[in-house]
Design goal:
Elements (H helix, E strand, L loop, with lengths): L6 E6 L8 E9 L4 H9 L6 E6 L2 H13 L3 E5 L6 E5 L9 H10 L3 E2 L6 E2 L9 E6 L6 E6 L2 H17 L1
């Protein structure tokens, strides 16, 4: 509810040994102002890079210093050609809340497997492939869902069969 990001890009930064992603969020305003930059700043909870985009060259020049101070990137969009120019690069930082980032990704149908830590698409998981757990760090126990990719679900099933055979 808090994040009404205009444009989101997600790309893989992982390797064969480690799965990792980068989330880029863009707040786009025809003209925008300093208050609009505050809205973009909120996206730091869930994104690694945050940009503010405007179609006004004058506004971009006025907001460039504020964007720099807030570590936001600045994009200028040409409305006629739809060409986007990066006026100021966005600094890459870890999202301020991994929990919020993962909740945001679930809304985009991307989950992080609890076991192997890979990011999975809708074809690789479904709502039946999760582990319900209780968190005990809040005042009341709260049910949380942990997602499993199909490969880990398969490995767990095989492991369970092996245990049953030994018993």
């Amino acid at each position: 509810k808090k994040y009404r990001i205009d444009v989101v890009g997600i790309r893989s930064l992982g390797s064969q040994q480690f799965d990792d992603i980068e989330i880029v969020a863009v707040e786009a305003k025809m003209y925008g102002n300093v208050m609009s930059l505050g809205q973009a700043e909120n996206y730091r909870d869930v994104a690694h890079k945050v940009y503010f985009a405007t179609a006004s060259k004058k506004r971009a020049e006025r907001l460039k210093e504020d964007c720099d101070q807030k570590h936001l990137g600045l994009l200028l969009v040409n409305r006629k050609s739809m060409q986007v120019t990066e006026c100021l690069g966005a600094s890459s930082v870890k999202p301020s809340s991994e929990a919020r980032m993962l909740e945001f990704l679930v809304k985009l149908k991307i989950c992080k497997c609890t076991l192997c830590q890979c990011y999975t698409s809708p074809e690789e998981w479904d709502d039946t492939n999760n582990l319900d757990c209780m968190t005990r760090f809040k005042r009341e126990n709260t049910r949380i869902s942990r997602y499993l990719c199909k490969d880990c679900k398969k490995h767990l099933s095989l492991w369970n069969e092996e245990i049953k055979k030994k018993d």
